[in-house]
Design a protein that fits this description.
Structural class: alpha/beta
Low-confidence stretches: 1-20, 28-34
Helix content: 40-55%
Number of strands: 10
Mean pLDDT: 86
Largest sheet: 5 strands, mixed
CATH topology of the largest domain: Spore Coat Polysaccharide Biosynthesis Protein SpsA, Chain A
Oligomer: single chain
CATH architecture of the largest domain: Alpha-Beta Complex
Strand order of the largest sheet: 3-2-1-4-7
Number of domains: 2
CATH class of the largest domain: Alpha Beta
Order of helices and strands: HHHEHEHEHHHEEEHEHHHEEHHE
Length: about 325
Amino acid sequence: MRGLIKSAWKRILIFLGFFGNKFAIFKLSNALSSKPAPFPHRVREILDASTPVNPIKWGPDLPAIELAIPSTLKDLPYLNMVIRSAIKNSYNPIRLVRVIVPSSEIEQFRLTLGGGVKGTTLEVIDEERLLGNLLEICNEVAPLNRRGWLIQQVLKYLCVLTSDSAGVLIMDSDTLLTTPRTWLDEDGTQVLMISYEYHLPYQLHFLRFKMALDTSSGAPKSPRVSYVTHHQIMQPDLLREMLGGELNWEAGLRAWISTIDFQTQSPACEYHCYGTYLALAKTHRYKLARWGNIAMQRSQFQGLSLDGSRGRFGNVCSISVHAYL
């Protein structure tokens, strides 16, 4: 029976023009052969697999972007490779890399990372200096065992909000990029990726946050997709708009923090909120691009070279080596 199902799907893919898409076949094969998962999850996997890697074409006038990575010591052994993978696989020039860490870890990061990649400037930044007075509300709102988790998300937003660049590529410090991509064009159109999961508390937080900013409006529509992709290009002007405008974004960021419900284990996501805002309010400013991510145990990652990862995992666009796997 499974063979018949695979054969039927193969004919469907040929009809739809997906047969030349190796990643689509790869994900479909996984969907048919792996452990059962909710149907919407499988639909999102196949939707992602059929989405183009580069919906925005390369051009000579692509704007330069920044790379920003909040990190801690547990990810330091992988960070040089993460940074180099992002620079190598960005068609947009990356001129500045900012790594944001606790003050007690700054010197160790500077010694390990050195001067960065040729042609870029690398800065290791004290997270408390970047947070400023927002550290107080983070400490007030989040339980002690969740403060680091919240601070990492707020730091990502602050890297974008304080940037003068056209865009900031935000990355988790355990995610490696393996496929070249155009993130942003000269007209302000960016790529946006969807992930396979759909975690309802993330969407509920987004709705609470938007209602807190504008109590006169009703709840916005709720797309049944998620944008928790471990890396995302964010544009400062769009994030400021999401948070209430050029002059009010700090108050908006405080609202974003204060509407998180810590009765839920995983109650909010910065990637999801930004992606949902684009999908609802800025449809002319993005094009869907393939996420194509796989997760890998850290033991499997040891000794893997940047070029080797591309050759070994040619069907994927990014690899995440989460510490909890």
